[in-house]
């Protein structure tokens, strides 16, 4: 039988739970809020009101870091423009958010699945079931990145609400040693993750409604920043025309209808002309718009876009100057 004295000694031992508890006690995301200690006694509508109020503070926290976010995006776009990849690495909720953002890039921007990648500690099965201990391994993160054949043109984004998750820190440290661009996205100030990365993005949203439940405000903040990172990077890479998703991949009926609407909004053309343009360009929205606005055929549109690195405005300018 373990005595109370022995248990206390274990917690106080270096590297033991006592040390980890002490670390967690210093984190804003883990702070206890005594004013909410009896929230479970409140009416449901009142809890919802409080929670909604908490969520409303997140955009302001993101806004405080817009200069740093913009700098990180420009650096990421520069790497991707020369063939680099965008890789997210995190554990638990943070890892799932990275995988989510990566998985939405192919249908939205017609990227290859290998261009934006989400790594979660413990592998794909960790998306739906926690893999015990996976987040505690820097070595696992390094191995996951090595399996991708990481290069200096790639960008690795470590994601961790606490900013102390070994998997995320290990990913950033390993990537930086390889010469890759590194971003560290966390929700605590002065985090180890931000210190390890070239671009530290610390979105401090404050203590959670439920103590330590960083799937709440911290998760929302991370999602907002990841939305910016992927979306604005793709805008910089020419994946949009104005605010239209001209590289959308029409993989289902809804997206096929959206494709036709996008061509219509970009060109003002009628249904018959839109159908002809899409038929001449194998359904590629950007190419179809160029055939209509530029008055060129499908193969010429493809060549112009290739010469313009996929930027529709540049391809249109090339048509108008010839």
From TrEMBL:
Entry GO MF terms: carbohydrate derivative binding; carbon-oxygen lyase activity; ether hydrolase activity
Active-site residues (renumbered): 104, 135
Entry EC number(s): 4.2.1.126
Keyword annotations: Carbohydrate metabolism, Lyase
Catalysed transformations (reactions): N-acetyl-D-muramate 6-phosphate + H2O = N-acetyl-D-glucosamine 6-phosphate + (R)-lactate
Keyword Transit peptide among record annotations: no
Enzyme class name: lyase
Similarity-based family: Belongs to the GCKR-like family. MurNAc-6-P etherase subfamily.
Protein name: N-acetylmuramic acid 6-phosphate etherase
Species, as recorded: Streptomyces sp. gb1(2016)
Lineage: Bacteria, Bacillati, Actinomycetota, Actinomycetes, Kitasatosporales
Gene from which the chain derives: murQ
């Amino acid at each position: 039988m373990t005595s109370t004295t022995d248990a206390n000694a274990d917690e106080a031992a270096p590297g033991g739970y006592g040390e980890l508890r002490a670390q967690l006690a210093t984190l804003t995301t883990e702070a206890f809020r005594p004013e909410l200690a009896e929230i479970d006694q409140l009416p449901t509508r009142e809890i919802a009101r409080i929670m909604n109020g908490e969520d409303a503070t997140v955009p302001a926290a993101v806004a405080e870091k817009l200069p740093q976010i913009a700098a990180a995006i420009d650096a990421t776009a520069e790497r991707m423009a020369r063939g680099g990849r965008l890789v997210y690495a995190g554990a638990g909720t943070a890892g799932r958010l990275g995988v989510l953002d990566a998985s939405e890039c192919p249908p939205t921007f017609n990227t290859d699945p290998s261009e934006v990648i989400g790594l979660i500690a413990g592998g794909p099965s960790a998306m739906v079931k926690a893999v015990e201990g996976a987040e505690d391994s820097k070595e696992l993160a390094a191995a996951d990145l090595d399996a991708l054949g990481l290069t200096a043109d790639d960008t690795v984004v470590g994601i961790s609400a606490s900013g102390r998750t070994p998997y995320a820190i290990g990913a950033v440290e390993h990537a930086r040693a390889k010469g890759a661009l590194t971003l560290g996205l966390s929700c605590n100030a002065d985090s180890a993750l931000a210190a390890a990365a070239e671009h530290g993005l610390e979105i401090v949203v404050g203590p959670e409604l439920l103590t330590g439940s960083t799937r709440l405000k911290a998760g929302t903040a991370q999602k907002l920043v990841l939305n910016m990172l992927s979306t604005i990077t793709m805008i910089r890479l020419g994946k949009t025309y104005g605010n239209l998703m001209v590289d959308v991949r029409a993989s289902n009926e809804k997206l096929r209808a959206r494709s036709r609407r996008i061509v219509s909004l970009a060109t003002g053309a009628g249904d018959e002309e839109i159908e002809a343009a899409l038929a001449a360009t194998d359904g590629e929205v950007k190419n179809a718009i160029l055939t209509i606005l530029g008055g060129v055929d499908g193969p010429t549109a493809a060549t112009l876009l290739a010469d313009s690195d996929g930027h529709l405005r540049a391809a249109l300018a090339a048509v108008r100057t010839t």
